[in-house]
Design a protein that fits this description.
This protein is of the alpha/beta class. The protein is built from 18 helices and 24 strands.
Length: 531
């Protein structure tokens, strides 16, 4: 195969030996040389080579989103998208309009509502309001955090609800305090009572939705994603096959690392699948679990009570003994753990459990790490552990989160600078569709800790530099999956995965210039992706 010379760029390799170069040479999807334009042309500019003129643009290692649910992005394309809705009336109008197109008895599925964005001061829709919007069909609406859901009376009817119905452990069907009847709000694992009755989308619908989602994230500059989906798209085997078909049938270069839910661990053993199974584009990753819930519904587990709910600490998704046995089982198979951990008490329980077990050859991943305590930092900084952080959370959760957590703990909330300064290995992600998958928005949140329209950030001492933010999405993403030998920097022998920007992120005078920056090219395996 002929060589391709990418030249005339400001190529930030993030390799300590060659930080910034003008050109690099690619053969068979790998970088074989880097250096100045003159040197690369003299050494490699023989007949048959291909030259790509980068036109002076900034180039970084390909961006990697370390935590998302790509199937959720696909569902937002296939179902009712409620992300960004700013009032109850708007939400009900969207539901009503969709319901008009749906035959009687067919489910209306939606995702992404967040009452904290309601600018009119309204609360979440009541079950009566949902019934009025869609009297003829069941409704199931996921909150942006995927820990709370809204249903109507038709949905309760379909799942044969009755007051003495057994609710899955850790879940709740919230009752109206006056009538004692269901309010329409469902929390955590109680959602299974409804999802068991929602017909699955066809294989082809799921595949095409995933392919659309893959193309969208590549367009935004992502060359790789770490994504957790089996619970949503048919289990272990179908998830792997869907990704394989979507990638190959649509000729998409995106590198996908699949986090597999713990309930499928035995399926993995039976099918001979394991962490690292797959190929350069599609690979099995860590085993996904939950330690607690989320701040939005006060289910994140805290060491001190919620400020706005005295005496309430949140909820552990697993008893300590059960958590230990689950971790032990995963270790028996030699695989790493990726565990959703938002509250500080949940973090302590996770670290306590990990400390009792032998390490895997792959790094364990502690996802979110939203509220920390100083006494836990040294243990979290163990080189066998990675904190998967989501910079956009900080701008979505302020200011309401301060009332929930309290001012005394605010300094330990989304404390990205503290984590990095303490030697914690961090990787950056979006948790899309909970937050936008556009990495430039995550970079902006990392360095400003505010929304674009705001003038100052929240707890600004925890802002990180642009270079630290980019490292989260490059070196950090590679480190999280033990792939730093092939990804994360633009070094000889590594994959030729690159993101090309319209502006130099490291020299811009104001971080808001990020908002006017475009991704010019996404290059995977040395091939410019169609975006």
């Amino acid at each position: 195969m002929s060589n391709t010379i990418f030249t005339n760029g400001s190529i930030y390799t993030l390799d300590e030996n060659s930080l910034v170069v003008e050109a690099l040479v690619v053969r068979d999807g790998k970088i074989i040389d880097i250096g100045s334009h003159v040197d690369m042309m003299l050494q490699w500019g023989r007949p048959g080579k291909k030259i790509v003129d980068l036109q002076g643009k900034m180039v970084t290692p390909g961006l990697i989103d370390s935590h998302m649910h790509l199937s959720g992005v696909a569902f937002n394309l296939l179902d009712v998208d409620l992300v960004g809705v700013t009032s109850k009336s708007e939400m009900l109008h969207i539901i009503k309009e969709r319901a008009r197109t749906v035959p009687e008895g067919k489910w209306v599925i939606g995702m992404g509502w967040d009452e904290n964005l309601f600018t009119d001061g309204s609360s979440i829709p009541t079950i009566q309001e949902l019934d009025e919007a869609a009297p003829h069909c069941p409704i199931y609406l996921k909150r942006i955090c995927h820990h709370a859901f809204l249903v109507n009376s038709k949905a309760l009817e379909v799942c044969h609800y009755h007051p003495s119905m057994e609710v899955p452990k850790g879940g709740q069907i919230v009752l109206d305090p006056t009538s004692g009847a269901p309010s329409g709000l469902v929390l955590e694992s109680a959602s299974k009572l409804f999802t068991d009755h929602i017909p699955d989308k066809s294989y082809n619908e799921l595949k095409e939705g995933l392919a659309q989602a893959m193309k969208l994230v590549v367009k935004k500059g992502l060359t790789g994603v770490h994504t957790n989906d089996p619970l949503y798209i048919g289990g272990l085997e179908q998830t792997y096959q869907l990704y394989n078909d979507a990638l190959h049938q649509h000729n998409i270069g995106l590198r996908c690392n699949l986090l597999i839910d713990h309930v499928f661990l035995n399926d993995m053993k039976e099918r001979g699948m394991y962490t690292g199974f797959g190929n350069e584009r599609l690979r099995i990753g860590a085993i996904k679990m939950f330690a607690d819930g989320a701040f939005g519904r006060r289910t994140a587990l805290l060491s001190e009570p919620y400020e706005d709910a005295p005496g309430y600490y949140g909820e552990a998704m697993q008893d300590p003994a059960v958590l230990y046995e689950s971790f032990k089982e995963i270790r028996t198979y030699g695989m790493p753990i990726a565990i959703h951990t938002i509250g500080d008490q949940a973090l302590e329980q996770v670290l306590d459990t990990l400390d009792q077990l032998p390490k895997s050859k792959y790094r364990d991943r502690i996802i979110h790490v939203s509220l920390i305590r100083e006494d836990l930092l040294e243990r979290l900084a163990d080189p066998s552990r990675v904190a998967d952080i989501q910079p956009r959370f900080v701008v979505s959760d302020y200011p309401w989160i301060t009332n929930r957590i309290g001012g005394n703990r605010e300094k330990n909330l989304y404390a990205w600078k503290t984590l990095l300064s303490s030697g914690v290995n961090c990787a950056g992600g979006s948790d899309a569709p909970v937050e936008p998958f556009d990495p430039l928005l995550s970079l902006h949140a990392s360095v400003t800790r505010r929304l674009p329209e705001q003038s100052r950030g929240w707890n600004e001492k925890e802002r990180i530099s642009m270079k630290e933010a980019v490292r989260l999405y490059t070196i950090g993403g590679a480190y999280a999956t033990n792939e730093e030998h092939v990804k994360g920097t633009l070094s000889r022998g590594k994959f030729a995965d690159m993101t090309v920007f319209s502006q130099d992120l490291f020299t811009m005078e104001h971080p808001d210039e990020l908002l006017a920056t475009n991704v010019e090219m996404t290059i995977i395996n040395g091939e410019i992706q169609e975006i």
